[in-house]
Amino acid sequence: MESMNWIQKFLKTHCKEVFITATMGIILVTVIRRRKKKVKKTYPPNTVIHHNVGRGPYAPSLTPFAVKLETYLRMTKVPFMTENDSARNKSSKGKMTWIEYNGQEVADSEFCIQFINKIFNIDMDKNFSDEEIGAGRAIQRMVDEHLYWTVALRRWVFDPEHGIDVKKHMKVPWIFFRIVGNMVKKQSYAQGVGRHTEEEVMQVMDEDLQALSKFLGKKKFMLGEQASQTDCAVFGMLSQIHWHSFGGAGEKLYKKYPNLIAYCERMKAEFWPDWDDCITHGGTRKAAK
Amino acid sequence: MDDIKRFLKTHYKEICITATVGIVLVKVIKWRKKRVKKNYPPNTIIHHQIGRGPYAPSITPFAVKLETYLRMTKVPFMNEHDSLTNRSSKGKLTWIEYNGQEIADSEFCIKFINKTFNIDLDKNFSDEEIGAGRAIQRMVDEHLYWPLFLIRWVYDPRQGIDVGKQLGFSSWFMSLGVFFAKKQSYAQGVGRHTEEEVLQVMDEDLHALSKFLGKKKFMLGEEASQTDCAVFGILSQIHWHGCGGASEKFYKKYPNLSAYCERMKAEFWPDWDDCITHGGTRKASK
User: Whole-model pTM?
Assistant: First the structure.
C-alpha cells in the first residue's frame, strides 16, 4: 500500500515529465512504423526481389541464408534482382533474408524456395529417388537448424574470445557486435547448443561436417550428378566457414574434409562465375553486382 | 531517490529478513541436491529420467531414445525416475551417471556409452548411410522436436484438447510448458511461424522420414542403428502421445512410419506394457 501511495505521489509531482516522455515515445514509434511502410519501392513485375544485407567481404553475403537463396535463384534461372536493404527492412519474421514478388512478401529461406517453386512451376525433386529426397531434406535441416548455431557461436562469441577481430573483418561497429553476440548467446541457449561448453560445440560442429563429408563422398553434388535444393542450403552454410571464418577454429575443423572444400569450389564455379563482382574483397571496394 | 532511501530506512528489518531467508533457501536447496547422491551399482549406466508415461515409456522423446539405445546395445543399466528434481548439468530431464561420472545431453550420453563399452554400430553401414543417419538424427532432434513441442503445449490445448489430463500433467506444469514452448521456440526460429506454417514444416519432416525409410525395416536398412533410437524417440510421442491432436492427423498420412514404430516397439520393448502407466491407471512395474 505504501508503494502505491509512493507511485501516486511521484506521478502527481512529475506529471509534466511523464506526459512529455510518453508522448515522445508514442510519436517516435509511429514515425518509425510509417517510415517503414513509406519505403515501398516500385519493382519490375514478375521478378523475385531478393532482400538481403549487402555483399560480404569474401563471399556474396555474411549470412548463409542469403547465399543459399541466391544460389537457388541462380540454379533455377528465375528472373530476380537483389535489394541490399534488409538491415533496416527486415522480414515479417524479423530476419534479414526475404523475398518480394509482385508486392507479395515471403519470409524464411525455405518458404521462399517453396514459393519460387510454386510460382515458376519448378520441381527439382523429380531428378531424385524418394530416399534421396528424404536424405536431402534431413541434410538441409541439419545445416540450417543445427550446424548454423555452431557457426554463429564461433563467429559472435568464441572467436572474438580468442582474440580474432571478427567485427573488423565484417566492418560492423563494436556496439552492434555486442548486441548480436548477446542475442546469439541467448537464442542458442534456448535452442540447446548454447548450453554446451566451447569444446562440446566444436565437437558437434565436427560431427555435422563429418556427416556432410561422408554423405557427399566422391559425388559431384550432395545428391549425385545433378544439383538440388539441398546443395543451396549446404553451400550457404559452408560458404561461411570456407570464406568467412577469418582464421577461426571452425576453419581448422573444416580443413579435415578436403571433399567439402572441393565441393564449395565446384558450387562457386558452377553458380557464381561472377563471384569476384559479388564480394567487396575485404571491404576494399564496392561489389559491382 | 529520497523516497527510496526513506523506504529502505523505515523497512530495513523486513528487507534484511527477506534477503536472509532467500539466501538460506537457495543454499539449502543446493546442499540437498548434493546430499541426494545415492550409491549405485558399479559399472552400470544409471539412466536418470522422469517417470513412466501414460502410453509410451516416457513423455519426453529423449528418454525413449536413450533407453531404446541402452536396450539395443544391451549394456548394463538401471532407471532412476528422479530427474524432475535432479536435473542434468545442462538443465535437462534426461541424463546418465556411470561410476559417479555425470553426462548430460542424449547424444553425448550415447557417445559416452559407445566409448565406455567399446560399441560401434556404425561398422554395419557405408559412409553415405552414416552421413544420412546423422542428418536424420539432427532433423528429428533439432527441428521436428520444435513443432511437436508447440503442438503439445500450445496449439492442441488451444483447440480444446485436454493434453494435461491425457498425459497426466498438473495445471502448473502445463503453464510452465506453455511458457518454455513459446519462448524457446521463438528463439530457435520455428516459433516465429504461424500455426499453419508450423504444421507445414512438421509435415515436411514426417514426409522426409517416410520417403527415406521407404520399405526398409529400419532407417538405414536391415540392421538397427543409433539413428533409429532418435527417430523412434520422437515418433513415439506422436504415435502414442499425440492425444488425438494435430501431429497425429499428419502422421496418419505415413503408414510406413506407424508400422516402423510398431516394429521398434516389438524389437526393443517386448515388456512395453510394464513400462507405461496405462493412462495413469497403474504404476509401471519397470
Answer: 0.88
